[in-house]
Amino acid sequence: MIQFQDKNIQLDDLLDRMAESLQLDKTRYDLMIQHYEAIKKWIEADELFFKPFKYELYPHGSVRIRTTVKPIGKDEFDLDIALHLKAQWNNHTPEKIYAELKRRLSEHSVYKEKMELKNRCIRLNYAGDFHMDILPGIQENEWDEDKLRVPDRQLGYWVSSNPRGYAKWFLNKANTIKVSLLEKALRAENLPSNDYENKKPLQRAVQLIKTYRDIYFQKDDTYKTSSIVLTTIAGQYYNGEDSIFLAVENIVNQIRRNTFNIPARIKVLNPVNAEEDFTDKWESEPKYYEAFKAFCEHLYVQWQELKKENGIITEGRILKDLFGDDLYMKAQISQTDVIDKARNNNQLGIDKKTETLGALGVASIAPIKSNTFFGDNED
């Protein structure tokens, strides 16, 4: 439930509901975890190479930081896994580590049929459900338990990475805000908070920006901006806004301020590993950077329109253009269901002064009649 008379809270509620329907559902999440645990056991049982080592196998990426987005045009999520060996990385070649992971997976009757060799990881494709990217790496030093050396097959040598440290950084940024605008509204009206999954505004902002990215590049994804770049920029520019709308606005405003009318391109470095440039291809292929700026400018313009008192029809059109008809309609239906439920439970009334919806218990709020099955008000 929400303070329906407040436009900003209504909009945040709608954005929250859109983001909620984008993410990994519990059934698929549980299925991913089952497969992940099975792969973990299979690697742990390897007698030829992995078993003698001390190592960890853990998720990273969007699943870990809770910013998953349902891909457009296919029903598939990705799960990123790090195979983190605790050994002297310079005692092994990157080719050896990659080859041993490939060998072990090839020894499994199911995994060998699902394997796809990528530059730094090995992907297992579970068609129609998800794919799992397994990144092999060796801990870089003893004093940083998160920093890894991972093989890069194109370059032919080790590169530095820090997927677990990155997740910690992002979640720390997201958690700088303790109570969101929506949570404050619920507490103010003494209403239950189970309508929200309690995601932070930064996490929701990333989900929405990535979804807009997917729609923008749907016709031609040749120079599509990567999720890691968008997530990192969002985390770096986030200023602790308690509102989803304001978080997105601040992020796109700062992108615009730092990219336009500045001759040099921006660099997006891993915030926990400055050796890792997430935008290195922008140097060799400038069209990636131009495409990034173009889609950020479009998002900026549309977001400015949302700030205006447009009315529900214009606001709906803007949100549909940004995030798609289906996502918007699902969120609207979900919001309407909550309003109906509150009304039928005698939690909702009409403010006699403003004629807007509000929570009962306030002196100016009068109860409204429940709808019958046929849509008529009960006497």
The tally of domains stands at: 3
**Strands, total number:** 12
Rg (CA only): 24 Å
Q: Any low-confidence stretches, pLDDT <50, length ≥5?
A: 370-379
The number of helical elements comes to 14
- Estimate the strand proportion: 15-25%
Order of helices and strands: HHEHEHHEEEEEHHHHHEEHHHHEEE
Which percent bin holds the helix content? 40-55%
Mean pLDDT: 83
What is the first-to-last residue Cα distance? 25 Å
Q: What characterizes the major β-sheet?
A: 7 strands, mixed
What is the approximate shape? Answer: globular
Structural class: alpha+beta
Structure commentary:
The chain has 379 residues and is of the alpha+beta class. The chain folds into three domains: 178 residues, no CATH class; 144 residues, Beta Polymerase, domain 2 (2-Layer Sandwich); 32 residues, no CATH class. The protein is built from 14 helices and twelve strands. The strands form three sheets. Strands 1, 2, 3, 4, 5, 6 and 7 form a seven-stranded mixed sheet that branches. A hairpin with a 4-residue loop joins β6 and β7. α8 runs antiparallel to α9, α10 crosses α12 and α12 runs antiparallel to α13. It is globular, with a radius of gyration of 24 Å. It starts with 6 loop residues before the first helix and ends in a 12-residue tail after the last strand. The C terminus is likely disordered.
